[in-house]
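Structure first, sequence second, as always.
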């Protein structure tokens, strides 16, 4: 290798911050975030759960990271650097503001949440690994397209198939229909929630039954101001990104190692999804009106026809987070002949109440327990009581059999919902 080659290689790494940063104390005492694109050294996470940023923008007048509105400082090398305050464990959406203009971080993977595509950063939680990639048999997430007669459109769902699905062609599986929250879409549970890894690990440990998980668009991304999907349209090229070595991915999807907690310091904080929903013809908020018909008349039949399912209510569950939890209340209440297992994660409103809920069945605790095998309510301890605790108190007072889980130290965020899914799926189909 000649001197010119050596010089060019050294220059390349210097421009990318590697050689410079290795001598830096912050660099030495931190690690690249798991949500970085391949090869990116920044952002980094240190032992205090601070995020360290290094962004090249030599012509910029200001660079701010939307995590606590952390202002970066320009160095002589053209790189802006800075350190955030300690962050809560879990996933955070964020963006960069360069000269006041919001842009995504080119060094981080992106995720659809809060009604738009944003960068994401994962902050490890000490001692918590149930949603991490482990050396266990892995299932796969596949892209499934079907035509919905109810809405006259071709729709897409993401379907998790357990590790042994392709190995045993005679086996049939129970199904969980899993809904996202406001400002998210069908990608949320696959990407941000790490659903496949949670199930892979539980199944390998013998703590959960192998099951199929269906993740569809409940129509509530539009609640953040996004446009409704036109008839015949889908989301080709933007799919779940957790397929590292797991088989087929959604069409056009790229691998991502991301998960999703609501943004802090950028857009809606802690996942609060603003905007008051109007009422549509079905009584559901207008921006998801019609999904109740889709799931019952179109999605369930399509899943049962194309996958090896146990097509009965005892082997079917529905769960959702935030407004997806509200959807779950409303859809299961009208269709207990289809679902015997229900999970409500941080539902902000919509619980029908004991007096009227489930068409009066809540007034008959013994009968309700016969029909609903698992009734799971959860929330984060930092959330408002109305997202779960008050519902739990109503049910407990009325003597209605249910399971209540409150995640310690978490808010309205995916760290709450990952833990909720982890607990809920261990109870199913026993």
């Amino acid at each position: 290798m000649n001197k010119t080659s050596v010089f060019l290689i050294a220059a390349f790494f210097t421009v990318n911050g590697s050689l410079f940063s290795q001598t830096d104390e912050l660099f030495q005492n931190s690690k690249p975030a798991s949500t970085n694109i391949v090869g990116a050294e920044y952002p980094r996470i240190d032992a205090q759960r601070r995020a360290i940023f290094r962004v090249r923008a030599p012509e910029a007048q200001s660079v701010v990271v939307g995590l606590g509105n952390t202002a970066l400082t320009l160095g002589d090398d053209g790189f802006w650097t800075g350190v955030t305050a300690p962050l809560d464990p879990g996933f955070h959406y964020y963006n960069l503001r360069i000269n006041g203009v919001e842009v995504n971080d080119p060094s981080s993977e992106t995720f659809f949440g809060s009604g738009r595509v944003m960068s994401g950063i994962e902050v490890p939680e000490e001692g918590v690994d149930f949603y991490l990639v482990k050396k266990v048999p892995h299932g796969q997430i596949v892209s499934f397209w079907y035509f919905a007669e109810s809405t006259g459109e071709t729709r897409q769902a993401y379907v998790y198939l357990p590790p042994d699905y392709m190995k045993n062609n005679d086996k049939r599986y129970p199904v969980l229909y899993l809904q996202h929250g406001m400002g998210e879409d069908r990608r949320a549970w696959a990407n941000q929630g790490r659903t496949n890894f949670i199930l892979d690990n539980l199944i390998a440990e013998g703590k959960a039954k192998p099951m199929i998980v269906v993740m569809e668009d409940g129509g509530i991304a539009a609640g953040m101001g996004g446009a409704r999907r036109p008839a015949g349209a889908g989301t080709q090229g933007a799919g779940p990104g957790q397929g590292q070595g797991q088989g087929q991915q959604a069409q056009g999807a790229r691998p991502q190692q991301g998960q999703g907690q609501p943004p802090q310091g950028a857009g809606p904080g802690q996942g609060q999804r603003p905007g008051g929903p109007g009422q549509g013809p079905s009584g559901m908020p207008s921006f998801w009106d019609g999904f109740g018909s889709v799931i019952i008349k179109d999605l369930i039949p399509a899943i049962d026809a194309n996958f090896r399912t146990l097509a009965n209510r005892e082997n079917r569950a529905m769960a959702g987070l935030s407004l997806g939890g509200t959807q779950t209340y409303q859809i299961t209440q009208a269709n207990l002949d289809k679902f015997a297992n229900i999970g409500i994660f941080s539902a902000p409103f919509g619980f029908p109440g004991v007096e009227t809920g489930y068409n009066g069945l809540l007034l008959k605790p013994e009968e309700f327990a016969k029909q609903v095998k698992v009734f799971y309510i959860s929330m984060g301890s930092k959330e408002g009581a109305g997202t779960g605790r008050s519902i739990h108190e109503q049910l407990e007072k009325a003597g209605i059999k249910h399971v209540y889980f409150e995640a310690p130290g978490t808010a309205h965020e995916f760290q709450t919902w990952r833990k909720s899914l982890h607990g809920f799926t261990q109870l199913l189909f026993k």
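Margin note: The chain has two domains: 24-123, 140-425.
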